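ok, trying the design again with the full structure, not the truncated one.
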């Protein structure tokens, strides 16, 4: 244990992964982004971020995906720490340790979760005292999915995904996640989506009423039928084997399945915990996916695990 942890000067915050239950992509904007109508849904896979004073700025990643995470200045957690340091009267270099459970470049916003967790952790470490609104603004500067990692639950996202409205969604949903080897870079998937739609008129994105009524009813069958993702064809175009993986999960009895965000993770919805266990065993045994996980949603947004001064959002 480092001297900082031993003296209690460390803060640990957890942040959830997300799925997009719906992802409707509008035309490419002049700034390169796309306006979205999306429904974010946080699920119980978490990264845990610990920040503590150190001699130099450093990001350390632990867990099974550690070697896949870039730890340089572009790392979202490092950028988040610098954003908070700019607001602090007394900060200083920090070591950021990310215990990573969320797949890397998997379409589940793992990097955004790390950014969101680090914003809150550094705010507490340096006793900056930013309001929730101020943290949300910094989150939106960091990336389109970072505000939702702060918020959690189920929420409609618009703009480039950073403008959120919570959704009244009483159900709990059991998901099976089929992971793939190698990530898919989000900008490449959006570019492929543009290429596939070139020459076609792309309407402004609108949330779908079917999905909203399934969520209001808490009905997994209706939700399974209403899952849609405009990036799915682009992900299939870049990684054709994903189409077969989706079919395997549906053949094994999933209520619905969808590429998560920009992929390549595929999320299957099941009726209950038993259904999720059965599907995950069947998928793992079939060898169709190199790794299979289960997760329940919705999950809470960022929350403090350990801090000298406890605070949640
Ligand atoms: O906001 P973030 O940095 O996470 O976005 C990563 C990339 O994903 C962007 O540079 C852009 O290529 C693409 N993107 C997009 N439209 C969005 C969100 C992301 O084109 N609404």
């Amino acid at each position: 244990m480092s001297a900082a942890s031993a003296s209690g000067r460390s803060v640990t915050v957890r942040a959830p992964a997300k799925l997009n239950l719906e992802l409707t992509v509008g035309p490419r904007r002049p700034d390169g982004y796309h306006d979205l109508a999306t429904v974010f849904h946080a699920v119980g896979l978490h990264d845990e971020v610990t920040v503590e004073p150190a001699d130099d700025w450093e990001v350390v990643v632990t867990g099974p995906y550690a070697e896949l995470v870039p730890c340089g200045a572009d790392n979202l957690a490092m950028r988040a720490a610098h954003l908070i340091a700019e607001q602090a009267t007394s900060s200083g270099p920090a070591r950021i340790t990310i215990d990573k459970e969320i797949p890397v470049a998997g379409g589940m916003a793992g990097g955004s979760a790390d950014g969101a967790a680090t914003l809150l952790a550094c705010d507490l470490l340096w006793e900056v005292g930013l309001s929730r609104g101020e943290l949300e603004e910094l989150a939106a500067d960091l990336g389109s999915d970072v505000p939702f990692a702060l918020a959690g639950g189920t929420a409609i996202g618009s703009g480039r995904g950073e403008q959120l409205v919570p959704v009244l969604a009483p159900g709990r949903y059991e998901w099976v996640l089929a992971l793939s080897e190698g990530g898919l870079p989000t900008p490449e998937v959006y570019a492929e989506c543009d290429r596939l739609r070139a020459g076609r008129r792309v309407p402004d994105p609108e949330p779908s009423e079917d999905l909203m009524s399934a969520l209001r009813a808490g009905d997994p069958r209706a939700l399974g039928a209403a899952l849609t993702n405009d990036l799915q064809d682009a992900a299939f175009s870049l990684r054709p084997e994903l189409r077969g993986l989706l079919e395997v999960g549906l053949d094994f009895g999933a209520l619905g399945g969808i590429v998560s965000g920009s992929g390549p993770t595929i999320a299957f919805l099941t009726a209950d915990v038993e259904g999720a266990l059965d599907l995950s065993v069947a998928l793992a045994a079939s060898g169709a996916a190199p790794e299979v996980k289960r997760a329940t949603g919705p999950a809470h947004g960022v929350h403090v695990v350990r801090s000298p001064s406890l605070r949640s959002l």
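Keeping the full-length input from now on. The chain has eleven helices and twelve strands.
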